[in-house]
Amino acid sequence: MKRTLVAVIIAIAITSPLRGEEEGTDTFYFKATLGYNRPIIPALSDELDKQGLGEELGQGGGLNISLGRSFLNRSWAVELSAYVSLYTSFRYLNEYEDFYGDMRHFGFGGVVTKRFPLQEDVLAAVVGIGAAYGRTELISGGGKLDVFEGIALARAERKIRGNIWLLAEFAYTTGFTEDAFDSPYLENISGDALFTSDNEALEARFTCLEFRVGVIVWLPKSKPYGGR
Q1: Residues 63, 34 contacting (CB under 8 angstroms)
Q2: CB 114 within 8 A of CB 68
Q3: What is the per-residue pLDDT across 189-225, written as a single tens digit (0 to 9) for each?
Q4: Do the bridges between strand 179-180 and strand 76-87 make them parallel or antiparallel, or are there none, so unpaired?
């Protein structure tokens, strides 16, 4: 089902240019944002509390790069994105595991958005929903959690000049399912999962809230073959 959703999003992105030729204003756009990210992983937070070291799941920052395509006179669009978030470090220490976590999260996916003009060609509000494949790592290349994620977003866009718009965006990302973190060490022969203080595999769902600011650049509309 999740793969089907991603396939539908990509199919819309491919076929939408045909409609754009009729509307006259639809085109591709490039979006880049930087954001403040707050992860919410209750299972991991509870384990850090139980370890009694005063450690907690940190805050972070994220970078998101998207290529979008509007259709139906820019009232709808599809965005294909790649993103990464880095977080402050923490100590993970119990009877079974001992490492410093430098958590990061990255992934790629697609979002379908609906645009609501608030002021003609100057100000707009946008909402969107989509899906992505994401990975959370507690250390570089280890302690991995791989899940499909759902994404919801809302943003305000304001034109500053020509084809350039500024934006402020709130995004919510959450895994569709829980899964166990893979062991953070390839040489760990005691098991293939990260263990909690209760000697159980740490199962979690990655969720985060993010506030982003950035820019949208609408690309020039390509002319038909032979056009002037």
Answers
A1: yes
A2: no
A3: 455 888 899 999 999 999 999 999 999 999 987 554 4
A4: unpaired
